[in-house]
Amino acid sequence: GNTVMKQNSEVTQITQRLVHEVMGIPVVLRETATVSDAVVTLFLENVGSLIVIDASGALAGIVSRKDLLKVTLGNAQASSVMLNMVMTRYPNIVTVSPDDTVREAIRKMISHQVDALPVVHPIDPSEGPPKVEVIGRITKTTITKLLFDATAGDL
Ligand code: ADP
């Protein structure tokens, strides 16, 4: 009788959880790493995108499968190109904070048409523009697993 209502409340419970409760470990490379390093890491870590950090450890960008495919087209030297040449660059990165809700993370992935969001804390550089530190990642796979786990008691 109330199966549909029960399912709706379970979905609401999932989407009201906080990002830090469900986030995964960020897979990170330095911006001086190469396209070759990035492709190897995508396979080894079984992820679709990599978070790129600068020498201070702050978020520098994101590199996705498509960014890596694009640079290989008509470029025989692609494998030695550094990630800071192919990544989407901070501050043009969509991020979430650990205290945001899962719903807010989903909303950002849909509206910005990306598969993954870095979870970040502000860091206070003594000089220069504001920077953020990456403490986790949330992806469409994270959300799919949450939905699946919520059905564990169902048939
Ligand atoms: P894929 O390349 O596998 O389709 P995405 O849809 O996540 O993966 O990435 C599409 C484009 O958006 C890429 O150019 C990537 O650099 C960029 N991108 C990925 N994640 C983010 C993000 N959180 N914020 C801004 N840009 C992103």
From TrEMBL:
Residues 22-79, 87-155 form the CBS domain. It comes from the Bacteria. Keywords: CBS domain, Repeat. Signal peptide: none annotated. The keyword Membrane does not apply. This is Helix-turn-helix transcriptional regulator.
